[in-house]
Design goal:
heterodimer, A: mainly beta, five-stranded antiparallel β-sheet, 53% strand, B: mainly beta, seven-stranded mixed β-sheet
């Protein structure tokens, strides 16, 4: 069964710290990986996507992908209270069709 | 980035009635759109893939006769929840792939069936 797993949290970090969010997936055929942020009552918004092994940085966000370990993570540097949200990891299902499988999300709380 | 809109944003209906939700891609053409539902504190569950000009592809366990999907144009897909019941109350979200191969989500429609 193709699954995406995340720790539901909540993950609490102090303002200014680095938040580390992790995700594992079961489908070795997956090629594309996405991180979405979802505020309560709102729809997900795309933060980053990553296709290749290694790190990809965009501002305060860094996505890390290790296909051998089937692991993808998101680092948020200098965490702000406005980063408090649920972060969803999504994996494009192998075999085409552009379908995404989502993890259950990790709730992040950035405390003052 | 690409913009996807949904209408209505919120709807309350009585049990037994039908509700139509529209999903539009505003600045790009989308041959494929997706419909998700999300229960409180749960993740998104893909319901179906909406294909322009052809029948939708439903995920296992989703009743195609209850959740009617029509993708009549390259910018519009509709989801009709037929004979809605309280257990259909949920947050329905559509999405479409933009030209940069990123999936963008609409703002969602919160359906409450009384």
């Amino acid at each position: 069964q193709k699954e995406v797993e995340q720790n539901s949290g909540p993950l609490s970090v102090p303002e200014g710290a680095i938040a580390s969010l992790n995700c594992t997936y079961s489908d070795r055929g997956s090629q594309s990986f996405f991180w979405y942020r979802q505020y309560s009552g709102k729809s997900p918004e795309l933060i980053m996507f990553i296709y290749s092994n290694g790190d990809k940085e965009d501002g305060r966000f860094t996505a890390q992908l290790n296909k051998a370990s089937q692991y993808v993570s998101l680092l948020i540097r200098d965490s702000q209270p406005s980063d408090s949200a649920t972060y969803l990891c999504a994996v494009e299902v192998g075999g085409g069709g552009n379908k995404l499988t989502f993890g259950t999300g990790t709730q992040l709380k950035v405390e003052l | 980035g690409a913009v996807v809109s949904q209408h209505p944003s919120r709807v309350i209906c009585k049990s037994g009635t039908s509700v139509k939700i529209e999903c539009r891609s505003l600045d790009f053409q989308a041959t494929t759109m997706f419909w998700y539902r999300q229960f409180p504190k749960k993740s998104l569950m893909l319901m179906a893939t909406s294909n322009e000009g052809s029948k939708a592809t439903y995920e296992q366990g989703v009743e195609k006769d209850k959740f009617l999907i029509n993708h009549a144009s390259l910018t519009l897909s509709t989801l009709t929840v037929t004979s809605a019941h309280p257990e259909d109350s949920s947050f329905y979200i559509c999405s479409a792939w933009g030209q940069a191969e990123e999936q963008y989500f609409g703002p969602g429609t919160r359906l409450t069936v009384t």
